[in-house]
Amino acid sequence: MSAGMRVMVLGGTGLLGHETVRVLLERGHEVTLLARHSPPQSLTALRDLPVVIADAVTTQPDEFAHLLSGFDAAVYAMGPDDRTTHEGEADAFFETHLVGATERLVEGARLAGVGQVVLMGSYFTTWARMRPDLDLAAHHPYVRARLAQSARAFAAGGGRAAGGTDVMVLEIPYVFGSIPGQVPHWKRLLFDVVRKGPVALFLDGGTSVVSSRQVGEAAVGALEHGSHGGQYPLADVDWTYHELATRIRSALGKSRLVVDVPGWLVAPGVKLLGRRWGMTGQSAGLDPSHIVPDILSQQIYVDGAGSRAVLGWTPGVCRRR
Asked: InterPro entries recorded for this chain (predicted)?
């Protein structure tokens, strides 16, 4: 991707989209946002950018083609993740809000002659490739959706070599970062757990970690150097949950004891929670019957060296924090 290209960032007011916009601007590219609402005034980096107000979930391919006319590239930095519950069946929810929406965007980009689309994906697709023995797609609607998102987006784009659009996917692990005016989602899930009480309990698994800045650099790197069908796992550092909690404790100036909890002790309670959700018509992207042995008690460490060599994002950011 040469300097001065026109890029539309869908979801530019979120953490990953905001950082992507900042990197694009730093490298001399012209940016337009697509969002449901105008950016809040706290996001000063976005204040003077043109904004297209649209709902990507309901926008059809011909409408996307109109919105993307004249653009060279697009970054899709939106969509639901695995942390929330949903009314009704999870598969139907993710088909509407993630898989179908992405496919329609890419179809519209191809119709408009957009050269490249980068999708913000999940490292659960990396994990599914690494651990076929866990059969993650059979167990978890969110993993099924992320795998379908990549496959259908690649097919919809077709690749520039075939007269279509190149589509690349970033497979993103735990992300740490913040943007003005928004409370980081890790505050409740991690920081508040460490802050309150004398003991912090965490499962005995682990995860790869990146910063939001690294994701932004990787997204722009994919536009500059990625190939159609590229699936790029990101990882700056691998931490057990114990190590992660210990770092948070140190940053907060707390002396709380961090205790590892074996998965077998927690799994029955998580399954019971899942049954309660089912009784109220709710579902989750990660099946409570399998989430502990498949994910929370696993050390999901992925290799980010290959993607870093191609995309050129800065290493070592998380290690310095």
From this structure: NAD(P)-bd_dom, NAD(P)-bd_dom_sf, NAD(P)-dependent_oxidoreduct
Q: Which CATH superfamily is domain 6-182+209-233+303-314 in?
A: NAD(P)-binding Rossmann-like Domain (3.40.50.720)
The residues, any chain, with a CB within 8 Å of residue 216's CB and separated by 6 or more, are: 16, 18, 19, 20, 21, 22, 23
Please work out, in degrees rounded to the nearest 5, the angle formed at the alpha carbon of residue 127 by the alpha carbons of 123 and 132: 155
CA nearest to 228, candidates 109, 93, 69: 109
**CB contact set of 267 (below 8 Å; sequence gap of 6+):** 292, 293
Could you give the dihedral angle defined by the CA atoms of residues 13, 18, 24 and 26, in that order, rounded to the nearest 10 degrees?
A: 120
Angle at 77 between CA 179 and CA 297, to 5 degrees: 85
pTM score, whole prediction: 0.93
Task: Find the DSSP H helices in 27-98.
Answer: 61-67, 90-94
Evaluate whether 297 touches 263 at the Cβ level (below 8 Å): yes
Q: pLDDT tens track of the chain, all 321 residues?
A: 456 889 999 998 889 999 999 999 999 999 999 988 888 777 877 888 899 999 999 999 999 999 999 999 999 999 888 877 888 899 999 999 999 999 999 999 999 999 999 999 999 999 999 999 999 999 999 999 999 999 999 999 999 999 999 999 999 999 998 887 777 777 766 777 777 777 877 888 999 999 999 999 999 999 999 999 999 999 999 999 989 888 888 877 776 678 888 888 889 988 998 888 888 988 899 999 999 999 999 999 999 999 999 999 999 866 655
With beta carbons less than 8 A apart as the criterion, state whether 138 and 95 touch: no
Residue intervals in the chain for CATH 3.40.50.720: 6-182+209-233+303-314
Q: 245: Cβ–Cβ under 8 A, 6 or more apart, which residues? A: 190, 193, 194, 200, 202, 258
Contact between 310 and 232 under an 8 Å Cβ cutoff? The reply is: yes
